[in-house]
Design goal:
heterodimer; A: 5-stranded parallel beta sheet; 41% helix; 10% strand; B: alpha+beta; 38% helix
Chain lengths: 371, 149
């Protein structure tokens, strides 16, 4: 993967963003408001607002092709449901979303034709967005218009200026890649080595982070500075733990031990309840969700670490990081008949326990959840 | 038991009296920014979204600063609320989208928030519109005079 920003450009023959805004009757003052909100969205210093305004004045409308592979559509839902205000609409008006098979009306050959035209007309300039992992074991696990995910990715990536991998599935394989990875799922970065890739992990990613990365490309025609996992540092540069408002409780050794004890009620640190905040890098603690309303820890639940590789295989969500996890890679090997049978017995027993608990209205414990 | 339907969504966000302790440092930052404005005429903008704040802490900051003499509303891509706090030179700027959802809140330490000023491009556009409007009126009057005569 290369990170040479200087070679990238979002310029093409389409209208500039300022032209687009002017066609909407947007005043300069509105444009400056747009720039202020954009700076905040991109997690840039407010002092960057004039620079953003200057860059946007010359920005051209880039073509965007969005491919969805082995995914649950949660990433697209995150993006399209969470923000519907005018400013976000303007950002989407400012890009030319030429292919997104979940959102577009066309299907089958008509849709594929649109993709081919966009690729041809904007060769070397378009932005490719991918959500979902790519199955390698059997192409039949996931196809679009009869084309395997692998073939579609390789074909579309060849003419892209840059690739944005959206969601943990596209960035690290995600849940499809979790042990025992039945489809042979891999990430975009596992397959593409000759293009700049921006990883925007999360299950799903914060919508503002997705639009922030798109807007960065639109604004500056380059990719943002990335960390060692290919994530934009402005959003993934600090751990959830370091930016968490409960951090002072961690420092004081004040922890919630259960979900309904006094510590939980007082908003103490959720580390002992399995919070993965210390090892998870994301913007949840500051950008938050639902237009800045809150984030999981604020709602009383530990961070699951969904923006980190293999978060699904990292042991229980409810065990603290300091507790050893079993070597889950070994569980892939235990598929011997005896082990499977033993697993079935344990599973049945656990199911009975849960049913009994539900019937008697007993309180479930963390140990029960782990079974 | 009879259930009543309440359309409002009730949140039970946990709070504590031992929060992030970011309120006081932030107020110090505002004080330093004011010093910078006084001594160097330099403006500062603080994005409240970039700071970890516990539930209720943003309100604590806003309440500490209070509301001063000047309040303004801006209708540009949704509402924006702008007001000077009880500390002259310290302004709160809140941007909302068309659905009245908050999309950004800033503390600006300046003599006047930039977004309140008339923008050069808008002034030029206003001049052209007014000029064209007056030209149109003049032409209409002239054509009426011609018809009468």
């Amino acid at each position: 993967m290369t990170n040479d920003n200087s070679t990238l450009t979002s310029k093409n023959d389409h209208a500039s963003l300022v032209d687009t805004l002017a066609s909407h009757g947007v005043s300069r003052r509105s444009f400056m408001k747009f720039c202020a909100a954009t700076a905040s969205m991109m997690a840039l210093s407010p002092s960057m607002v004039p620079a953003i305004a200057a860059a946007l004045e010359n920005a051209r409308k880039p073509s965007v092709i969005w491919l969805s592979f082995q995914e649950c559509t949660g990433c697209t839902e995150s993006l399209t449901r969470a923000h519907t205000g005018t400013i976000e609409n303007l950002i989407f008006d400012a890009i030319s979303l030429d292919y997104h098979h979940t959102l577009q009306a066309a299907a089958g050959h008509g849709a594929e034709e649109a993709r081919m035209i966009a690729m041809e007309e904007n060769h070397g300039k378009y932005l490719l967005v991918v959500d979902g992992s790519i199955p390698l074991d059997n192409p039949g696990y996931s196809t679009i218009a009869g084309i395997s995910n692998y073939d579609m990715l390789m074909e579309t990536a060849s003419g892209a200026a840059a690739i944005i991998a959206v969601g943990t599935c596209a960035t690290y394989g995600g849940i499809p890649h979790a042990n025992p990875n039945p489809t042979g799922a891999v990430s975009v970065g596992d397959l593409i080595k000759d293009k700049p890739i921006i990883n925007v992990p999360g299950c799903p990613p914060i919508p503002v982070v997705i639009t922030g990365v798109l807007t960065h490309f639109l604004t500056f025609g380059s990719i943002p500075e990335l960390d060692h996992l290919g994530r934009p540092k402005v959003f993934y540069g600090q751990s959830i733990h370091d930016r968490c408002y409960r951090r002072p409780f961690y420092d004081q050794g004040l922890f919630a031990e259960t979900f309904d004890d006094e510590g939980a009620k007082k908003g103490w640190c959720l580390y002992k309840l399995g919070c993965k905040g210390p090892t998870t890098y994301n913007a949840c603690a500051t950008t938050k969700w639902n237009n800045g309303t809150s984030f999981p820890i604020e709602s009383g639940h530990p961070c699951l670490g969904c923006s980190e590789p293999d978060f699904w295989d990292g042991g229980s969500f409810y065990k603290s990081l300091s507790m050893p996890t079993e070597n889950l890679t070994k569980t892939a090997v235990y598929a011997a008949a005896g082990a499977v049978a033993a697993g079935l017995v344990v599973g049945t027993a656990n199911k009975m326990k849960k049913s009994k608990v539900a019937a008697s209205h007993e309180r479930m414990t963390i140990d029960d959840l782990e079974k | 038991m009879k259930q009543t339907i309440d359309n409002s969504i009730q949140f039970n966000i946990q709070t504590s009296d031992q929060l992030t302790r970011n309120v006081t440092p932030l107020l110090h930052e505002v004080k330093h920014a004011l010093e910078n404005l006084i001594n160097n005429n330099q403006t500062t903008m603080i994005d409240l979204r970039s700071i970890p704040l516990a539930p209720g802490e943003e309100d604590t900051i806003l309440n500490s600063l209070g509301c001063g003499e000047v309040q303004a509303e801006l209708n540009a891509l949704g509402l924006s609320e702008i007001y000077e706090t009880t500390y002259a030179g310290v302004w709160i700027v809140s941007h909302f989208n068309d659905h009245n959802e908050l999309i950004g809140r800033f503390i600006e330490i300046t003599t006047m928030p930039e977004i309140l000023r008339s923008q050069d491009e808008d002034i030029l556009n206003a001049y052209h519109r007014l000029n064209e409007g007056l030209d149109d009126n003049q032409q209409t009057k002239e054509s009426m005079v011609e018809k009468v005569s």
